[in-house]
Predict the structure.
Amino acid sequence: MATDISKIRNVGFAGHGGVGKTSLVEGILFAAGAVNRLGKVDDGTTTTDFDPDEIKRKISLGTSVAFCDWKGHRLNLIDTPGYGDFVADARAGLRAASAAVIVEDLDLGPHPDVRVDIRESRALAHRLLHPSNEILPGDETAAAVASLSVDLLPGWYDDWVVIENEEWHQLRLHALEAMAAHLTRRGRWAEAVIAALAAIRAEPLRESAHGALIKVFLAEGNQMEALQSFNRYRTMLQSELGIEPTAQLTGLVSNLGRRHSDP
C-alpha cells in the first residue's frame, strides 16, 4: 500500500561527531518496531552505520537514511556525519529534511571541528564590499560563490529568522555583485559571469544583478550577449511587473541597440 505523501516526515539528525546521533536513530527505530533488536555502535550493529569503514572506525562517514512508521506517519530518519571532514555530506542530507534534531552532549560549547559558516560568509561579504579590506586568496573562488548562494535557515518563518534572513539575503546579493565587478576588473570573465548569475538566481528580478552580468559581457567585448541579457531581463520585468528597466540599466546597452537598428 502506498504511503500518503502528506504523512511523510523527513527528519535530520545533526551534531558533533561522537555525541550519539546514530545511537538515537537506532533507538527510535527499535522503539517504533522497525528493527527487532537494538544495535550498538561499539558492536558495529547499528542500522545506519553499515559501511565496513564506519563499523571499523565507529563513526559515520556519510549520510544514511532509515525509516519507521509511528502513529500513522512515515518517518524518514536522516543520520548525518558529525566530523568536519564530512560536512558537505551532512549538508546535503539536511537539505532533504523538513525538520532537524540537534544532538548534543552535556559538555556545552563549540566542538573544535565546528565552523560557524554564517560568520565566515558574512566576513567574506564584508571583505568584498569594502575596497579597503584585503581580499584573501579564497574570496573569489567557486567555493566563495557557493557560500554566498544560500539563505539562512530556509523554510523557517519565525519573526527573528525572517529579519535575519532578509539582512543576510541583501548582504550576499551585494557581495556577489561586488565579486563579479572585482573579477571583471581582473579579466576573469568566466568567474565573473558565474558570480553575477548566482546573484540573478537568488533574486531574478533584481536589476543590479542583471547589470553586473551585462557589464561583464561588455567588458569582455561580447556585445551580443550583453544585449540579449538586457532584452531577456526587460521581457521578464514587463511580464512580471509591467514596468521597464531603469534609464541607468538601459544606458548600458542603448548604443548597442541603435547600432543594431541602423540601416
Remarks:
- The beta strands are 8-14, 64-70, 73-79, 99-102.
